[in-house]
Give the backbone structure.
Amino acid sequence: ATINKFFEIEESGFEILDSFEQDNDFIGQRQLFTKAPALHWTNYPRESDIQVTFKFTFPKGTIPEWIFREWIKMAKEQVEWNYIYEWNNGVLLRADELVKITLIRLQGEPNVIELSGRIDTEEAAEEELQERRDSNEQQIEDGLDCSPPTCPLKRVWPFLVQIFQPLLCGIDSYKTLPFNV
């Protein structure tokens, strides 16, 4: 309260810490889930999923918690996501029902960061067929619209690139931080 008066700050629920003990005691991490999302997401793509992953490998000990959280925050702010689930080792972002984007730190390998975009190909084809039916029902009934379904991954790219570009810029801003993609 005294510090608030000194800096003329109104009490607004901010917590002022006496010390910053360890890097893994990061302020934001205290409120995070410890487990990855159980619903609508698995560590590895299912058979019907198609996924693209960018794997960034850094030297051990070069990615402190605050940098990783900064990248997570940046990813969450790039798009108005329909769903956000953040946990200790990453974030799951959903842009629509089918597109899933993750930015994660590998369990047991904190120097490896993965940015992935995933979509269920069967659900995407089903949705595309329904959209075609809605737009030109008569053509489909007459057998005139025989075009194959489009590439479902093209729905993922617009969201993935909106995180990939700023992430690369963020990494590049640390001039002495070497990495492999």
About this structure: The first helix runs from residue 2 to 6. Residues 13-29 have pLDDT under 50 and may be disordered. The first strand starts at residue 49 and ends at 57. The chain is about 30% helix and 20% strand.
